[in-house]
Structure formats: structure tokens, C-alpha cells
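Input record, target 12 of the design panel.
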């Protein structure tokens, strides 16, 4: 595989709240769902006992685009560990102060602000938050 074809994409697990998260990100940051498949629609069903009770209608796989970036997502299999986001954040670079303000406010709704959006030595505006799904975000407006 050549370097030009290597691609790393974040795969996010929402512990049963994937559709809700996709709708939220569509409103908050203009995300566009490109593909969505439910467990019940898979050509082969998962092995017995792999899925939690009632997960047939949950999202097995989705892909969505934010700007030029494609992310993938799922409800997971019903394991509570599927919804814990630890050790990373997604970073969004924006072009205008208004866009930074709008996106930060939208993602912070129902979440918690780690670092308020403000001027730093490296950015005209930078802020950090955890959204209502437990996913960390960094908003960055370069000078």
C-alpha cells in the first residue's frame, strides 16, 4: 500500500445513541450522513448473544461527513463500554470568528466546557468541550 492511499478515519461508538448523535451533529456542525445500515438490514446476522436485546433496529454502521472529513459511527453492540470516549478529541479548524462561536455554542449545548473559547498564543480563538455524548472537541481559529 502506498503512502498516498493510506487513510485513517475515526470510528465512533455511541452506545445506542448513534441516530441521535448524527442528528445533533447535522444541526450543530452541518454533518451529512452518507450511509446508514441497521443490524436488522445486514445480509448476515451477528452471532447469537453478540447484540444486546432490542438492538435489531440500532445502527450497525454509518458514515458521515463534516467538511472534507469522513467519520464512521455505530451504536456498538449494547456494551456500556461502547459509549465511553477516552483519550482523544476531535479538532475542528474554522475560517471565521462567527463560525467558531456558532460551532462551539452548538456543540457545548447539553455538554460541558473544558476551556472557554478565547484567544491563545497559537490561535485567534480556541476552546475545548465535551459534548452531550461524551465526545471531546477542540475548536480552533488560526490567526
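The sequence produced for target 12 reads:
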Amino acid at each position: 500500500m502506498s503512502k498516498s492511499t493510506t487513510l485513517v478515519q475515526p470510528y465512533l461508538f455511541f452506545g445506542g445513541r448513534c441516530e441521535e448523535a448524527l442528528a445533533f451533529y447535522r444541526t450543530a456542525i452541518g454533518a451529512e450522513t452518507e450511509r446508514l445500515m441497521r443490524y436488522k438490514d445486514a445480509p448476515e446476522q451477528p452471532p447469537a448473544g453478540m447484540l444486546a436485546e432490542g438492538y435489531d433496529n440500532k445502527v450497525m454502521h454509518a458514515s458521515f461527513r463534516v467538511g472534507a472529513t469522513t467519520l464512521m459511527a455505530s451504536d456498538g453492540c449494547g456494551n456500556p463500554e461502547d459509549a465511553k470516549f477516552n483519550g482523544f478529541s476531535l479538532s475542528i479548524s474554522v475560517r471565521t470568528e462567527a463560525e467558531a462561536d456558532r460551532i462551539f455554542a452548538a456543540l457545548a449545548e447539553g455538554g460541558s466546557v473544558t476551556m472557554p473559547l478565547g484567544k491563545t498564543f497559537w490561535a485567534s480563538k480556541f476552546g475545548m468541550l465535551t459534548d452531550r455524548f461524551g465526545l471531546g472537541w477542540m475548536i480552533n481559529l488560526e490567526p
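The first helix runs from residue 18 to 29.
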